[in-house]
Amino acid sequence: MARPRDIERGSPPLEPDRTTLVDPGGGIINCKRGFAAVAEKIVFDPDRSTTIYRRFDKLSARNLLFYQAELAELEELQDKYDEEDCNEKDAISKECQRDWLELKKRATEGREREKARFGLCMEIREKVERYHAALGAHQILLNSQLPSQSTVTAMRNWFLNINEETQKPGISQLWGASEKIYDDINDLVALHAPPDQDRLSTFIQNSFGIFFMTSRPENGQAIISHRRLSRFVTILSTILASVLLFGAIISLYIVKNQNALLGMVSGWTVLFAACVGLLTNAKRDQVFAGTAAYAAVLVVFVSGNLAGPSTCTCIGA
User: Which region ranges are annotated with the description Disordered (predicted)?
Assistant: First the structure.
């Protein structure tokens, strides 16, 4: 039985330029290549983490500039018409400046002056709508999450059929300019980024991803299940949070020396801040707030212990 191929690590498929399937008799059928193979690879991952496409930032920027330049010309023409209308003495023209239906009517009748202005209105409306739609779409793409480096590397290795031993590319899945689609990660967008992509999840995926693989027998490939990874990270985070809280309380309860207690409070607080700052995507204000709350709990606990039991003796009358 052929060993599973790791899609997340980018191991090459059984055939460099084809997607492998299994027929009912158990034999392997090499039947898909090119766009069909790439499309099947993209939808192969049930977590859809491989739905990665080019953003074409440079072309999008140029397209927006073209729209902007075109609208600037239309705006200048509109200003020219407005200036002419200010000096217009014709009664019909004055009416058309105030009544939209009259302007539309006169333009439909073929009156050249109103026809030109009505046509400009329609052209501006169409161009502005397209321009705003392009701006909105580009903004969404720029604010979208980048795909993970490991997934891009895996897709690129598979796409270029990079040999695991020599690290040399083989026959690309697509030819021509499409061979470079995975070269620049900053120009890529993940349509469905895996949830909980914090530093801890990324570290575990890159270092211990082999323990979260699931394979599909129909094509001999394996993928990292982000659902399993997310579940494990959640459990690990819960355990780590419990250790940081109860471990600190127990150790502070055992130690009686005041200087040692203050040092341990500082140490546990630094450890907590390091875990929150390095293993999560918490922002600076969240790190400060969480660390302050954690330190406050420890200080209250230590203060109660330092106060000790009451030594006051009450004497009855």
Answer: 1-20
